[in-house]
Predict the structure.
Amino acid sequence: MSETPSVNRTPQQWREVLTPFEFQVLREGGTERPGTGEYEHFSEPGTYACKACGAALFTSEEKFASHCGWPSFYAPAGDERVRYLRDESLPGRPRIEVRCAACDSHLGHVFEGEGYDTPTDLRYCINSICLVHQPPA
């Protein structure tokens, strides 16, 4: 996978296509408050695409109820769909940030070893505001 995003915009161009809160989360690494996102309890079939660029990131097949306050997935739709960065913004608690591989937007974090009954030992904790649900064709 290339480390260079295929969708490139200036901050001003992103501000023209995203709301201020979408910009804060997707482009500045913010987060929505737990329990406030529209997809946390949403369970319709389909694909979850990046709100910033439209790239398909996750599917309803990998979504599960973690009860953590944000939508959770046990894997992305494909390994090449996301990229990972070490996040040391919380002292003493390093995390792995998840970004859209196509446009380098912040999506959330991935956690390992929490004991969920899923096919992987991972929980992709993703902000609803970063996603757009697309029903099956």
About this structure: The two ends are 27 Å apart (CA to CA). The chain has one domain: 11-134. The mean pLDDT is 93.
